[in-house]
Amino acid sequence: MSTITTEALSATTLLRFATAGSVDDGKSTLVGRLLHDSKSVLVDQLEAVERASASRGQEAPDLALLTDGLRAEREQGITIDVAYRYFATPRRRFILADTPGHVQYTRNMVTGASTAELTVVLVDARNGVVEQTRRHAAIAALLRVPHVVLAVNKMDLVGYEESVFAAIAEEFTAYATELGVPEVTAIPISALAGDNVVDASARMDWYGGPTVLEHLETVPVSHDLAHCHARLPVQYVIRPQTTELPDYRGYAGQIASGTFRVGEEVTVLPSGRTSTIAGIDLLGEPVDVAWTTQSVTVLLADDVDVSRGDLIVPTKDAPATTQDVEATVCHVADQPLTVGHRVLLKHGTRTVKAIVKDIPSRLTLADLSLHPHPGTLAANDIGRVKIRTAEPLPVDSYADSRRTGSFILIDPSDGTTLTAGMVGESFAAPEPVTDADDDGWDF
Predict the structure, then answer these.
(1) Which residues pair with 347 in a beta bridge?
(2) Do 125 and 168 contact (CB within 8 A), yes or no?
(3) Rounded CA gap, 379 and 104, in Å?
(4) Cα atoms found within 13 Å of the Cα of residue 13, Cβ hemisphere only
(5) What is the pLDDT of residue 293?
(6) Which residues contact 168 (CB under 8 A, 6 or more apart)?
(7) What is the structure's pLDDT at 313?
(8) What pLDDT is recorded for position 306?
(9) pTM for the full model?
(10) d(C-alpha 48, C-alpha 61), whole Å
(11) How many helices (H) and strands (E) does the chain have?
(12) What is the rounded CA–CA span in Å between residue 181 and residue 299?
C-alpha cells in the first residue's frame, strides 16, 4: 500500500462519493479497480481475492470481491448491502459507498448517496440508459448530490467506439439536466481492463478528459457548512449531579450545520423558549466557538426545559415550526405507502406520530411526467406526499439543509423504515443549457 504521511493527509480534502448503476454494470469491479490501481489494497487483501478467484476457476483476480464481502454477494455475483471503503491518495482522502444495482435494493442506494458529494452512475455501454439508470439519476437529483459522473463502462465490449459513448452521454445528460442535476461529467471506461479508471486509456485517444480518479481528486468540494443555518439537534441531556458538578446541565449533540458561539442568543424548538449560550464544551474542554460536525455540549444561561429531540438554533435564524409537512419521498419498503397510513416520522433526533394525508403525485421515470393522486406509492416509487404530524416540527427546506430538511417514515408496528423524505421542492431548477464543445469529449 502506498505510504502517505500524516502531514500530507491533514493537508488534503475529504470527498464522500457513492457508486450506482444497474445490475452487472460493473460497480464493484470499478471500485476494486480504483483501489487496486491506486495502490490502496493491502497485500493480504489482494492475496485473499486471488485465492477466492482461483477457487472459482477465474484466471485473473476478480476485483469486485474487494467490496462484495457478504457470502450471498459472492455466490450470486451481485452487491446487496452498501459497502463502505476508505482510501487516500496524496491529493485527497475518500469515503466511498458502493451501493447495490438491483431494483430491490434501491433503498440501499438512497442510504449510500444521502451523504455523498458526488455520485458515479455506471452504464453498460452495450445496454445504454435503462430504467434503473434513470432511477439512480432521479435519486441523485432528489438528494441534491452536487456532482454526478456518468461512467460508461465495458467500452472494451463495444470496440471502444466513440459514437456509442457519445450517444449514451447525450441521452443521460439531457435526462439529468431535466432533473436539475447541476453537473454531469461523462467518462468512457473499462473497469475490467482498467481503461480511464486510474490510468488514461491508449485505446480511446478520441477522449481528452480526466480519468475517474483524476476527476475524483480535482472536483471542487465545499465543506464550508459553517456559514449555513446553525442547527444543533439535542441527542442527550447531561446532568452528572456530582460533588464536583452539582449544577451542571448540558445539552449534547452533533452540530448539523452552521456555527455556535458563547454569548449567542438561541431558541429551543419546538417550544420556542429562548436563552443565551453560557458555555460550549468540546472533548471535555471549554471553547468559545463550535461548528459543523463537531460533537459538543452546550450550556445555557437560563434553566429552560430542553430534552432529546429538541433543536437549538440562533434566535435570529430560526426555522418555522409546522405540523403540515410537504415533501418528495422515495418509498423503500415492500409494503405500499397509502393515504391514511399512520406512521412515525423521524426528523433529526426527534420522532413523532404522523399520518399521510395525501399523495399528490407519483413520478414516472421514463419521461419525468407526474401521475396525479395515485393514492399509493409502491416500493422504489418517487412521489410527493403531504403529512400531518402530531407535534410541531422545526423543518428546513432540503435545498437549504440536507440534514434538517430530511426525514424518514417508520412503521410503528415493527420499526421498519418505509420512506425517505426531502422537505420542499422536489428537484432543483435545471441549469441553463450551453453549447457543447465540438472539439471532442473533453469535459
Answers:
(1) 350
(2) yes
(3) 8
(4) 13
(5) 86
(6) 123, 125, 128, 129, 150, 152, 186
(7) 97
(8) 94
(9) 0.79
(10) 10
(11) 8, 25
(12) 41
